Amino acid sequence: EVKEKGLLSIKHLAGSHSEVLLPRLHDVCWAVTSEVTNLRSKVSYSAIVTLGELFVALKKDMDPEVDEVVWVLFRMVRNSPEFVQKAATQTLGIMVENVTPARAMTALIDSGVRSRHVQVRKCAAELLLSLMEKIGVTELAGTARAERLAQAAGTLAQDCHKDTR
Q: For the CLASP N-terminal domain, which residue ranges apply (predicted)?
């Protein structure tokens, strides 16, 4: 209960007084992501939702935290009850919408496309597709990111799982 109240407080701070969190953002994100893997699924769910609120409220200020958060959320996608998986997938979608596209793409490719788990690769493929639609093909054309995305798309297109392809 104490952890859930703390996570709720962080959500409220992010929504109404985000400037309070900014100087210690790394520490706050570390504390929240450490609760994502809590064995109590209720606490884990609350931490995942709190991360989504942080992405919504702080947007591009969350860029430095993306790699660690994506790694932990993908871990929950592959190894959790269904409602926690759904929350992790939704929070990853929120992350894609709110952080710098290049940062999101790098984290998704590094943590998702290379995963051994089908659920994680499927989720990464869906998020990369939505990210590419958000950025637009013309914006990507001719950049170094386009080459990396093309390699990831090639890997996903050859995946043994049909939903990932």
A: 18-136
| pTM for this entry | 0.86
| C-alpha 60 chain-centroid distance | 13
Q: Helix crossing, 82-98 with 66-78: angle to 10°? A: 150
Torsion angle defined by CA atoms of residues 97, 119, 153 and 148, in that order, rounded to the nearest 10 degrees: 60
Q: Which amino acid is at 88?
A: A
DSSP-assigned states of every residue in 11-64: HHHHHH-HHHHGGGHHHHHHHHHHHHT-SSHHHHHHHHHHHHHHHHHHGGGGGG
Please identify which residue in the block is written with the tokens 């992010």. Answer: 14
Average pLDDT over residues 20-45: 91
Coil/strand/helix, residue 158: coil
- CA atoms of 28 and 138, how far apart (whole Å): 37
**Residues 131, 96 contacting (CB under 8 angstroms):** yes
Instruction: Note the pLDDT tens digit of each residue in 97-121.
Output: 999 888 988 898 888 877 778 888 8
- Asked if residue 10 lies in contact with residue 43, where contact means CB atoms within 8 angstroms, the answer is no
